[in-house]
């Protein structure tokens, strides 16, 4: 553990935000309802899966369209929720560990994986809890989580420590812009009712430049950025070059 992480732990610092944990625990039963409170995640989940699969396959010299392109790789899904990403990653061949600060989320994820016949290591834990185990991963997923943590700097440091040298980190979040305030906060929560009111705090959205700056001291560099843009007429999400609202970051550890 680095001096920063050790000092933070000694001071009682944590990546967990109790209010956020309570909010998502209250919605835990809705994770696998494609028309429910997590409908947006279901809508763009295929984009996330393809983005991760293709970049990991290219980085580790695999065939992205092969039967098990992630076979032999250890993958950590931080803030795994009900397992919407953990399950497709396991089907692609990765050995998946999913952690979440909400015990209810882990219960839902573990039950669904069991019903689906998938062996996934789900744990009610924080990323800093894994540091003591000295386990490291080829791929770390921080998807729709950085805008919900208590200490972004500590979270990025710990996540980076859990990544093997040469490993890949993927981050999905929302940029803090006026456009995201209008669309991802006011529009999604108050107008379209895609998300329960209070799901997001616009002040905690993370700009791509801030994400890169937070990762750089930990030896992790952003290699690619892609926006995720909703097309209302087609009722679908597409990968684009617009980073003003939702975006995906592909990062590599030196």
Describe this structure in words.
The protein is of the alpha/beta class and 254 residues long. It has a single domain (3-253), classed as Vaccinia Virus protein VP39 (Rossmann fold, 3-Layer(aba) Sandwich), CATH 3.40.50. Helices cover 37% and strands 23% of the residues. It has nine helices and eight strands. The chain has an eight-stranded mixed beta sheet. The chain is globular. 43% of the residues are buried.
Keywords:
single chain; 254 residues; alpha/beta; Rossmann fold; 8 strands; 37% helix
Q: Any chance you could write out the topology, listing elements then pairs?
A:
Elements: H1 3-10, H2 18-25, H3 39-59, E1 74-78, H4 86-91, E2 95-100, H5 103-115, E3 121-124, H6 127-131, E4 137-143, H7 152-161, E5 163-174, H8 178-191, H9 208-215, E6 220-231, E7 236-240, E8 246-253
Parallel strand pairs: 1-2, 1-4, 2-3, 4-5
Antiparallel strand pairs: 5-8, 6-7, 6-8
First-residue to last-residue Cα separation: 18 Å
Largest sheet: 8 strands, mixed
Strand order of the largest sheet: 3-2-1-4-5-8-6-7
Q: According to CATH, what is the class?
A: Alpha Beta
Task: Give a brief rundown of this model.
The protein has 254 residues and is an alpha/beta fold. It contains nine helices and eight strands. The model is unreliable at 6-11 (pLDDT under 50).
């Amino acid at each position: 553990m680095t001096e920063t992480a050790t000092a933070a732990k000694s001071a009682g610092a944590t990546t967990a935000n109790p209010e956020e944990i309570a909010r998502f625990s209250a919605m835990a039963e809705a994770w696998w309802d494609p028309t429910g409170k997590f409908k947006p995640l279901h809508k763009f989940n295929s984009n996330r899966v393809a983005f991760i699969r293709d970049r990991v396959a290219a980085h580790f010299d695999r065939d992205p369209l092969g039967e098990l392109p992630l076979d032999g790789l250890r993958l950590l899904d931080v803030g795994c929720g009900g397992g919407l990403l953990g399950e497709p990653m396991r089907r692609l061949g990765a050995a998946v560990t999913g952690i979440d600060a909400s015990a209810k989320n882990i219960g839902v994820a573990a039950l669904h994986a069991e019903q689906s016949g998938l062996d996934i290591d789900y744990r009610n834990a924080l990323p800093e809890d894994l540091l003591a185990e000295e386990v490291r991963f080829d791929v770390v997923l921080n998807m729709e989580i950085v805008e919900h943590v208590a200490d972004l700097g500590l979270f990025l440091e710990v996540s980076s420590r859990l990544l093997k040298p040469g490993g890949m980190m993927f981050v999905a979040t929302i940029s803090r812009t006026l456009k995201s305030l209008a669309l991802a906060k006011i529009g999604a929560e108050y107008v379209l009712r895609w998300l329960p009111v209070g799901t997001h705090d616009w002040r905690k959205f993370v700009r791509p430049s801030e994400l890169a700056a937070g990762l750089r001291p930990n030896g992790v560099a952003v290699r690619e950025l892609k926006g995720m843009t909703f097309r209302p007429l087609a009722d679908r999400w597409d990968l684009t070059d617009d980073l003003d609202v939702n975006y995906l970051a592909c990062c590599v550890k030196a």
